[in-house]
Amino acid sequence: MPRVERIEYEDAYYHVMNRGRERGRIKLFRTDKDYEAFLKTLEEAVERFGIAIHAYCLMTNHYHLLVQTPNANISRAMRHINGVYTQRYNRLNSSDGSLFRGRFKSILVDKDAYLLQLSRYIHRNPIETQKPMVDSLDKYPWSSYPAYVNKVQCPDWLSQNLTYQMLGSKQRYAGYAKYVADGNTEQLIRFYSRGNMASVIGDKDFVTWYKEEKIPEVKANKQIQQIIPHGLSIEQISQCTAKYYKQSVEQIKELRKGRNSQSMPRKVAIYLCQHLGDHRLKSIKDYFGLGHVGSVSYITSHIREELALGGELKGEVDLVIDFIINNAT
User: In what helix (H) or strand (E) does residue 14 lie, and over which residues does it extend?
Assistant: First the structure.
């Protein structure tokens, strides 16, 4: 069955879900350290990709997120979240291999009609199970609900203001608690009880706008995107990086043995293939002759850590990016 094409645009809202592999029989979270590792990954994704997370709930074998994408990058952000968490989970549990059943499920959300309802739906998960996991939602530590009702400190990366504004209650903590306690609407329950849920949830005007205006607009813009960094191939990024450093592509691609033997131009090229081109780790691994996708992750993580320090490397990488934008064909 062919994959449903994801339509991504600026400031879109999504209900994102994923389960453990083997139809959810594999637990995504075994210990508190697993939950904490996933929350750390969410925090990093907010900082790196500029997404906003308006609600989350981590269950034993699946998760729910309510995500806003100011930069039209839901696929990129979620690939990072699922990939990095898989690595952390495997380290914590001395395991190996894939963790999730497949690519994540995302439902495009009509913010005005459904954001509040989906926030409630996500937060009610721990008591909507066949056997409730807690007797009170504010006692469930792995969702954003306790922060919404001021039972725990809200993490800096969790976005709450829009939800409170839409709720319109003067007593926002008590008002939100009452709203969630009122339960999900029958309409929303019917929507999520379908075996094959639609990829968009919204009122009639939103669905019409999305299908007749937004989808054609996004598809038309794909041709334009080919001239900006996110459309660049691995070859183009590597060629321009080599040219900037006055090296050949062969030198950039050369795999040298030994610790700390990788040249900085090569590391920068590998980083930019992921950062600018949004290419899969396996594709980058194959092009640069690395033995494992973990080597790509190690190099890109190291570069990101260096860039976060704001030293000479940041200025250098910015110059390389400018050079690529101006010279790539």
Answer: strand 12-19
